[in-house]
Records
---
Amino acid sequence: MQALLLAGGLGTRLRPLTEDWPKPMAHVGNRPWLEHLILMLKNQGIDDFVLAVKHFPEKIQHHFGKGDKWRVRIRYAVERSLLGTAGAIKNAEPLLQDRFLVFNADIIQTFRLAPFIEAHDRRGAALSIALTEVDDPSQYGVVEQDADGRILRFVEKPRPEEAPSRRINAGIYMMEKTLLADIPSGREVSIEREMFPRWIESGVRVYGHAMDGYWMDMGTAKRYRQVHRDLLDGRLDLPVGGSEIQKGVKIGTDCDIHPGVLFVPPVLIGDRVSIGERSVIGPYTVIGDGCRIGSGVRLSESILWNRCSVDNNAILANCIFGHGLSIGTRYAMHEAVMSRIGVNYA
Ligand code: GDD
Ligand code: MG
């Protein structure tokens, strides 16, 4: 089975982290989400990947290459201009098999694919859309279904009072390639706003399938933080590595942690991290590979990507820092989301 990963969006709602970094490469538990996704799909039998990329594609290509390290095949469909979600699929057409899965690569999920594929086949669907339920569907694509699960209506980001249900597009599709003939080429086309309604209207067999497992669109800083809370609380199950030095505190390899550091769980620390004496780390704190934390530092509810440094006696609360940031001594920062442009420490 083949998977096409839509990874080309600008990630505007996650700026400044996405200023020069593709959103699906945002770190989740100290590893780019896209890597978690590829490994998770590989574990479910997918070994052929097409990545539809546009925003800083070289960062994705540099990290994954042809996929040899992960023992999968990865090819790239690069867009010169943003083509939208359907345009990106159309652009990848020459690389696609007769049927394939599509993933919005910014969705953090632990979906079991086998029942989804099985339902698609059983129903003789041309298109199956994985569905999940949310309290406020107005930021998503919302569906109306009949008793057999066939989708009768699809409305992208309706006003709250106009949403036909709370069942939304989870951003995972199974598609027959024949559908691609309907997508216009050479211009921006949204699968949600243009193609789904058109296919449904013209009688294409479009079905919805309720998904299991964890689901979160990490598209905003608030939801990105929530993903990490869920990971550290064990609601999201991802292989994050490290060994547990005390309950709820996981630490990677080759770290230099002063014995006088106080950890307040849950905490996740990557490889080659140093932390000085009297620092208080946690709760809900994730520190990326190669970070240097000085002494007397207080870090709580914060997420640091790789190779950040935080000097003595600084205080960080509720912060998200991209790769390679340096925070001077005695700086106090609350709620800061910051990135440094021009570094590539994936
Ligand atoms: N290659 C490429 N080209 N990828 C794109 C493009 C493009 O022009 N535009 C968006 N993408 C990718 C994004 O990188 C992301 O992984 C995915 O397509 C979805 O785009 P978002 O911009 O994140 O859309 P959304 O979150 O507002 O809404 C979508 O996801 C919801 C689920 O979270 C829609 O599919 C909704 O219907 C859905 O409910
Ligand atoms: Mg999204």
---
Amino acid sequence: MAIDVILGLQWGDEGKGKIVDYLASSYDIVARFQGGPNAGHTLKFDGKKFVLHTVPSGIFRPGLLNLVGNGVVIDPITLAAEIRELEKAGVNYNGRLLLARKAHLILPTHRYLDAASENAKGKAKIGSTLKGIGPTYMDKTGRNGLRVGDISRSNFKERYQTLKEKHLSLLEIYPPTAFALEEEEQKWMESLEVLRQLKQVDGEYFINHALRDGKRILAEGAQGSMLDIDFGTYPFVTSSNTITAGVCIGLGVSPDKIGEVIGISKAYCTRVGSGPFPTELDNATGERLRAEGGEFGATTGRPRRCGWIDLPQLRYTIMLNGVTQLAITKIDVLNAFEQIEAATAYRIDGQSTQELPYDICDQPIEPVYQAYPGWQRSLDGIIAYEELPAPAQDYLRALEKALEVPITMISTGPERNKLIVKAKRPVGV
Ligand code: GDP
Ligand code: IMO
Ligand code: MG
């Protein structure tokens, strides 16, 4: 068996949670492979709404196993809070929520360092979610980190103290930043008890044995490819590899085990936090997209920056990920628009190009747009592709043609069942 992958092709918040929750019923295991509580994945079904940060989006599908892989960074405080929400909703997560022993832990002082580092950057700040992601991955690659499996070691307290002391001395290089360390530390220690009760596994053996036994596995990405530490809009990125290659590292599987790669894109584009965004609309149209799309962060509540879909950007992330099918979400957000636009190329220094330049941060990029007529009607109740209004079908066909990957899913609303599933056919059909 192979592992199928779902990941975001833009700057995050493409609707990964919704699509994973929908597809989960066809799988035995859903596994998160990177990121941490900077993620906010929204699920809506039966009139209820849940936002998941660390727990994989398969948790609401009874019987399915959910693995938090070694590539994920875990904050026990956020995870314990999520578990309380699951308990309130009557979800039986016992034995169904598994933690990889090699996943790293976010300490309170990692969050403290995140806040102090962002503060010190002033105008150059990344717009981090301040969940301690950067400092935790720094300790991982710096070989100082603490991992889930360390919790049960006899020297855990000692190692915690050593790392904390190191963080406190690092904090001295920054201007003072408010942080209730003692309070946060107490919550952290209490939350460790919740973690201790969860099942821990050697994730790499767990996944490979499951594959050998013919289990169907879906890897759930967090963030988006344009936030990838290597290929995103550096330094305005997150600290993990968000692309398909991250699945191998973050779960412990070899590249030949990757099956379908489902890339998700909104029918337009958003970004939250600082950094370049070539098609951003800092005008009334951008405001309209934000209002129609309810574009406010699921983790921080910050307004998301909005703009038209960016085809050179998507071609780039499709290339990086080896995308085999596309899911286009939030197409209903465009319902009221008289005209829709898509950037088909960039103009840089007077030259037209399809490729993202090395210096995307400081070099002026002028997108070249193509306009498409809107459909100006609701898509409610539409369950088949053929029922979509002709201008919507034309827009989707144009995207497919430009991106050279078949669109197999079209999401028409936040609820689980508002999804049109199309058989995988040759592009443009
Ligand atoms: P994720 O991080 O990729 O899982 O996405 P988020 O949950 O952060 O943001 C996506 C937002 O759009 C959430 O509020 C979803 O409920 C909502 N959403 C997902 N799909 C659709 C859709 O097709 N139409 C509309 N209108 N909203 C959607
Ligand atoms: P999901 O999984 C959108 C952005 C932050 C910031 C940058 C670095 O819900 O799509 P970090 O906290 O990682 O240090 O922040 O990355 N960011 C996201 N933007 N969706 C996310 O996750 C994000 N996770 C991080 O806004 O610009
Ligand atoms: Mg999100």
